[in-house]
Design brief:
Length: about 190
């Protein structure tokens, strides 16, 4: 049992290897309002299964994952300024990066050679069926130097979580949006 920012929490991690499949889970039970005996608890957790498809020449794997945010919403709000305090708390602490409760992710990675790797992921919101896709190529120059090139795009309708969300209107009447859309990135990573 631990306490952070006035809220008590209990965390558990489990890992099990079943031949070529690794199943893991991370669960955190956190007090909703931090007021002690009368408060309820919420669960933030992920369960992941990864199948190793590697050969002697190349590494490869596929995975399926389920994520639950007990502090998340069942439906998106009309105004994002009115998110529940518990959800804002989790977003601020980076315990979660989503607004709703239940998600699945499917994906995999493949090494083209020792230096060049690619991954592909699909993440879907189980409430509104919005989805986003991410693919990334990573080239390792040295053990400490990597170049990453990727694309993140949404497969969503207006009003869904992964679509651009309208958070306001400019004085001229144009919508102000947040998130969603497609993004291409190039990242230079250096680690010592």
């Amino acid at each position: 049992l631990a306490a952070c920012n006035g809220a008590r929490s209990i965390a558990a991690h489990a890992l099990r290897q079943l031949d070529a499949v690794t199943v893991s889970s991370n669960l955190t039970f956190r007090e909703r309002d931090g007021l002690g005996e009368d408060s309820s608890w919420g669960l933030i957790g992920v369960v992941n299964a990864r199948l190793d498809l590697s050969t002697e020449e190349r590494s490869a794997s596929v995975f399926a994952e389920y994520f639950h945010n007990g502090f998340g919403l069942d439906a998106l709000p009309e105004r994002y300024l009115d998110l529940p305090a518990d959800l804002n708390f989790g977003l601020a602490r980076q315990e979660t990066f989503t607004l709703m409760r239940n998600y699945i992710a499917l994906g995999g990675d493949f090494a083209w050679n020792n230096a060049l790797k690619q991954n592909l992921e699909l993440m879907m919101n189980l409430h509104d069926r919005s989805a986003m896709v991410k693919t990334e190529f990573s080239y390792m120059f040295r053990d400490y130097l990597r170049l990453q090139f990727g694309l993140i795009t949404q497969l969503s309708q207006d009003g869904d979580e992964f679509a651009p969300l309208q958070i306001g209107i400019t004085p001229s009447g144009d919508p102000v949006t947040w998130g969603g859309g497609s993004r291409v990135y190039l990242r230079w990573e250096f680690s010592s």
